[in-house]
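Appendix B. Raw example, untouched.
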Amino acid sequence: MTGMIDFSPFDSARFGIRVERGSFNTESPLAELLASISSSSADLLILRVPAGRTDIALALQQTGEIVIPADTLVYYGIDLTPESGTWAPSVRRATAADRPAIIDIAAAGFQGYRSHYAANPLIPANLVLEGYVEWAQSRLGQQEENQSTWVVSDGDVIAGFATCDSEGGVAEIVLNSVHPRFERRGHYGRLLHHVMRHHAHQGEQRLIISTQIWNYTVQRQWARAGLRIERAFDTYHVDRRLQPRTIHSLSETEK
């Protein structure tokens, strides 16, 4: 099958339910996809499919599943050359001593962030934020050779961070944020260009990064740095805890 559904241990532990994640592509046969979802025992399925594959959500609804259109994720990328990026004196590799600052930046930067979790009324917002904070500091221990975390400073204060993974000549910025009180000072641009320079210096051929489609400000930053949009994915939640009467009750509460 051109796609798969896997158990998500981190989501399951955080939310106290069984969560599974599915990734599918344009060639994933609809019948096989529906069969794999039907046989899943998950309370919550998080499905990511190429943008435009609306047949999947419609078919799931016709089988009686409650489907939440959760978000659209866009990926940008750039081919790296020896001249890519710029070294920034205010950017350096993070250490374990930076943990409190990174926790503070993640807690402030992702407060109220509209990720796919935010679309689901049964997922507590405080647990989502805790997840981002945990994710932000997860690489500060014994880092793998293909992982790195970077911080950018405003004077003596750490203003932002970026975590990166590398595999097969491709570097990905998987999570990044600048503290709201240090926004619009050029820190994000310096951090981005330094990371580009580092990975170009390491001999990697490409850099990719992703965000929710509504996050226009950061996409403008990427475009100015030479990155170009290259693909997009729609995210759906299939939450077995939701029933039509539950949705009706939620709607009545909001009135």
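End of appendix B.
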